[in-house]
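Each field is set out as follows.
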Amino acid sequence: MKKIILSSLGVILIQALVFAQQPPGTDIYLFDLAFKKGKFVLTNAVNISDRKGYDNQPFFHPDKPLIYYTSADEEGRTDILVYNYASNETQKLTNTPEREYSPTVTPDKKFISCIIQRDNGAQDLGKYPIDGGNAEIIIDNLTVGYHVWRDDNTLFLFVLGQPNTLHEYSVADKTDKIISQNIGRSLHRVPGTTNISFVDKGSAEWNIKKIKRKDGTIETVGKTLPGREDLTWTPGGKIIMSDGVKLFYWMPGKSKDWTPIYFPDGLSLSGITRLTVNAKGNKIAVVANE
């Protein structure tokens, strides 16, 4: 009996330590983005989350000058914030005792879907009304890490496990099927299509792959930068990635190599991970270390 009690206490202590840990300090930088004479130009850098702590996972509203992102408080609990880059104002979308991650505007633009992490370790996928309100749970039987919408009814999910797997999930009948495994966290709908891209980490060289809507076949788009999994697509079909310090772009089917993108003079970033470009292709948000 004593062993059981000690074991239970150990689990509680471990859980307490895990949830007390602060996420790493990161900031989100917003740039104007233009493509001129065969190269991208970045200007007007703004640190939209200029504070100590974790600010990450930015997502642009498709029509409005808004960026949704995850922000942690002093205890490491995260909420979803929204930054208006027209007015330079930031507001909270959620203020809950749980943790929200990976905010994403739903296809109907009425909700922000996100990962909801529970204190018991569960990670559900839910959605909040885009103007504020209580969450509606979409998936609570899978440990969802990341997600992307193909359309109103179809989600593609990064599901945590050994190994991590890519699932196609139907919201209407709550069925899912495994599409691939050993995948990266960067899931995207390819601009101008309903095809879905993901990173296949199943070999020494990681590959960007695409799931075709028409017949479900998977084709290789190209190789990632070595050891890197975060990427974003531009409306013109270019892919932008980072090696952690610099940005690079590549045009599937046209570019031979990754071409560097330079930050404005005087600005240097480190620990770059997530990136996202808005629907117009004239803004890019970059996450980097504080």
About this structure: The radius of gyration is 19 Å. DSSP finds one helix and 24 strands in the chain.
